[in-house]
Amino acid sequence: MIKELLVSKTRGLNLRNGLKIGAFVLVWMMGLNPSLLMGGVGLEAGWTRGVAVGSDRIAVYGIVTNDTERPVEIVDFAMPGAAHVMLHESVLENGRMRMRHIDGFVVPPQGRTQLEPLGLHLMVMGLDQAPDVGDRLSILAEDAGGNIHELVFTVQSLDSLEFEDN
Ligand SMILES: [Cu+2]
To answer: How far is the CA of 98 from the centre of ligand 1 (A)?
Structure first.
């Protein structure tokens, strides 16, 4: 029963490392506070523009921080209420901006990785519902060691160009 529930809840998530992050998302959605959640890695000044009319996706920006003494390789992402979360890079190709899928990235010890418009960003796809301006949302990031980290971001207005601190 729990297994079927898990499969139905996690179907559509972008799962590279089996069901671990899926199981985590399920526990998290049930309102429990899973002990798997690791400190030391987070998102500073996290923001998104929200969902444009006719779209079901958002791009998420901010600074991924690693306050630990080890490099942290982020390998997978998930978000409750969304089908997929992927890491994208914007690249200029023949005069046009395109988005390219990236497998993962390493945040150096005591380091920072910038996610920004026209650069590296997280793409959340297949949102069940459009978030409202001012909402605080979370993406879950799994590292190569199987630890889960919470990346919190704020929904800003559609015309915002950068993180608005308030
Ligand atoms: Cu993208």
So the answer is: 8
Amino acid identity for residue 144 in this structure: A
Half-sphere exposure of residue 115: CA atoms within 13 angstroms, side-chain side: 28
In the reported structure, the alpha carbon of residue 3 is separated from the centroid of ligand 1 by a whole-number distance in angstroms of 32
Query: How many whole angstroms from 104 Cα to the centroid of ligand 1?
Result: 14
Domain positions in the chain: 2-155
Residue-wise pLDDT tens digits, 73-128: 999 999 988 999 999 999 988 999 899 999 999 999 999 999 999 999 999 999 99
pLDDT at site 67 = 94
Q: Of 117, 120, 119, 128, whose CA–CA distance to 156 is shortest? A: 117
Does the domain made of 2-155 have the CATH classification 2.60.40.1890? yes
- Going from the Cα of 134 to the center of ligand 1, the distance in angstroms, rounded, reads 22
Q: How many CB atoms lie within 10 A of CB 69?
A: 8
Instruction: Check whether 20 has a pLDDT greater than 70.
Output: no
User: What pTM does this model have?
Assistant: 0.81
